[in-house]
Design goal:
Blueprint lengths: L1 H13 L6 E7 L6 E8 L2 E4 L3 E2 L2 H16 L11 E3 L6 E6 L2 E11 L9 E6 L5 E10 L6 H14 L5 H6 L2 E11 L1 H4 L9 E9 L11 H24 L1
Antiparallel strand pairs: 1-2, 2-3, 2-4, 5-6, 6-7, 7-8, 8-9, 9-11, 10-11
Helix pairs in contact: 3-6
Length: about 240
């Protein structure tokens, strides 16, 4: 099981289109050989009890192998909203809120197997504009939605008339978002667990910029920190206005 968890961590870290991972393990020797089936997602891992290769358990194994061979991509844990390169496995496009975004570059990937599993990318829309795309898994019992908050802040900020280009570029920008792309309770079915279910959330926002560490002079470094303060003050004032 430890080996399966290690492999699952690498798969989740490198594959945006992965919803969950199915595994089949064999152990033992000769007539005492056994197998178990496991499902691993961002909420945790569940597996069947070890079974011998005989009787109804052997029939169950045959069904599992049949599903691995002929099952649909969605059944095997693939998110069909993400288009991948079949040769490299890297994501090419992602569909969010009926909009297609081309993935340009990954800028963050969570190294942890369980939990939020956050991925952050720079993406490009159909008009050629660049945005920040965030994919994460949230505990289902959390009522607060970051998408709703950013929508409100963005609408208030954009409604205010301003001729200051500096402030205009610093405004939070909501582009697209989905609060409930997927959840971990669907593939688990009737399998109960004490671990809370997680839901998948995707949001595309802006603006984007270079990392602070890319400054070329002290003046640029200080200006970056000033922009950060200005942005935080703008968000705070808009939140109070809401």
């Amino acid at each position: 099981m430890g080996t399966l968890l290690e492999k699952a961590s690498l798969i989740f870290n490198s594959q945006l289109h992965r919803r969950y991972i199915l595994g089949l393990a064999f152990f033992g020797k000769g007539a005492d050989i056994k197998f178990f089936f496991t499902l691993i997602d961002r909420a945790g891992a569940i597996h069947t009890k070890p079974s011998h290769l005989k009787g109804y358990d052997a029939l169950t194994l045959a069904r599992i192998i049949f599903a691995f061979t002929f099952g649909s991509e969605e059944l095997l844990g693939i998110d069909t909203r993400v288009t991948i390169n079949r040769l490299t496995g890297y994501p090419i496009e992602v569909l969010i809120d009926k909009q297609v975004f081309t993935i340009v570059q990954e800028i963050h990937s969570s190294p942890y197997l369980f939990g939020w599993g956050t991925h952050v990318y720079i993406v490009k829309d159909a008009r050629g504009h660049f945005h920040v795309f965030k994919d994460s898994w949230i505990i289902a019992t959390h009522q607060s939605s970051k998408i709703d908050h950013i929508k409100k802040i963005s609408s208030v900020a954009n409604a205010k008339s301003s001729t200051d280009n500096h402030s205009r570029f610093l405004r939070p920008r909501f582009v697209a978002g989905e609060n409930h792309v997927d959840d971990t309770s669907k593939p688990r079915g009737y399998a109960t667990t004490l671990i809370p279910a997680c839901i998948r959330r995707r949001i595309v926002t802006g603006p984007i910029g270079d990392p602070i560490t890319s400054y070329r002079s002290r003046v640029e470094c200080l200006q970056a920190f000033i922009d950060i303060v200005d942005r935080e003050c703008l968000i705070l004032l808009n939140h109070i206005a809401i």
